[in-house]
Write a sequence for this structure.
DNA sequence: CTGCAATTTTGCAATGTCCCCAAGTTTTCA
DNA sequence: TGAAAACTTGGGGACATTGCAAAATTGCAG
């Protein structure tokens, strides 16, 4: 067995604490719930909470872990003849068209974003995650293109592509908080994506094109 | 008299506290200095510090206040035949060419950025300021172009132009922290500006062009 | 100049996040 | 089954931030 009972129990405890905390935050807001309350509700000590989560914000934004390498993954998986930005645009369109909960297109995400929106600490954390996404992407672009460390272009490209992704995510959040239904927002975002693609220069749209397979 | 003695004294106290705090932070780092120490060094009580500054971070980033409407000012002051992005590019080039301390091109800015860099709290605040710059710009663009509130284009344009500004500021900080001299960094940034302008599409470069005077 | 009202400053107490350490407890594995 | 390793917990504490009411200052009218 690749995983002992101990590991399983740890994951379970961690997940339980995060779930309990998320429930409380969704119900009463981030600042209004103390870590002590979370610990109580999860039947563990405050120290145990901090044993699993470095900071209170991580109790709520734990699930965003799958996001940090999203752009890198998409770029690495780009098709033959497709550029980095092209792959991201395509993947985004696919997620949006399928009204995927992975990008927040689901009922309940509005309340989730609402909690983040009303807490400076959570907003910071979200920004930090976005930064991480961008840094990872820059690193991937350097690998994929073999650009030297002092070449600023991969950094600029990562900035543009992250802007694309970040703007889409932010807009989805805003529209849902304004009362839009996922299906409606999905349609709006597809239009937004066309507008954004229009705003990008050919330099960006043709960066890091993968040779035909 | 437009201003009483009381007002003057308040401004003076505020400035003094900020100066003392900045000195301590530059010397020992942001987290290593407590608010109590700042208060002591400034001969006031902790409550007085909080009377002037909403949070510890504001003690260090107080001077950045002149930045929040920078892009708006530049865009509003664009010349006849000049676009929003064009004006920002021109103003940036002027500041960079003149090695202006307003954009951090000065000895000592490296240490300043170093303090920010090593404190998550300060980095967040800096990001928040950048967000404010962008929001102001978006508002200005809507005013200048008369775009309706539901038109997403001004928001996208503000995003692109802020990206320009933010990337320049971040790069200046990075280069200076890496040991570059202001004059050298100035030259590098001019090259960077050319590269960035190259990356922007005509849609962006020709947005909100002011009619000939 | 003096005294009062407005404004500031300060002390004190409290809350909440987060860290550190030492003392249990539980799980793993020889 | 008996350590050794890994978790959990209680206690203590540093520090940012806030609320409140007393105390010190200041502006200004008389």
């Amino acid at each position: 067995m690749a995983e002992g009972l101990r590991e399983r129990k740890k994951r379970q405890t961690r997940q339980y604490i995060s779930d309990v905390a998320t429930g409380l935050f969704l119900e009463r807001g981030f600042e209004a719930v103390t870590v002590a309350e979370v610990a109580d509700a999860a039947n563990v000590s405050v120290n145990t909470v901090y044993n699993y989560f470095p900071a209170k914000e991580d109790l709520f934004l734990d699930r965003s872990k799958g996001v940090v390498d999203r752009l890198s993954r998409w770029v690495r998986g780009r098709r033959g003849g497709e550029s980095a930005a092209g792959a991201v645009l395509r993947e985004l369109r696919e997620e949006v068209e399928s009204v995927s909960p992975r990008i927040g297109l689901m009922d309940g995400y509005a309340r989730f974003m609402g909690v983040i929106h009303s807490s400076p600490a959570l907003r910071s954390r979200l920004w930090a995650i976005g930064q991480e996404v961008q840094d990872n992407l820059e690193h991937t672009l350097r690998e994929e293109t073999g650009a030297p460390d002092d070449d600023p272009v991969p950094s600029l490209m990562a900035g543009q592509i992250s802007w694309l992704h970040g703007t889409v995510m932010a807009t989805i959040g805003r529209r849902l908080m304004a009362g839009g239904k996922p299906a409606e927002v999905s349609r709006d975002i597809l239009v937004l994506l066309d507008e954004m693609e229009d705003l990008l220069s050919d330099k960006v749209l043709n960066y890091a094109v993968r040779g035909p397979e």
About this structure: The interface with chain B takes residues 120, 124, 127-128, 152-153, 155-157, 159-160, 163, 167, 171, 192, 195-196, 198-204 of chain A (CB under 8 Å).
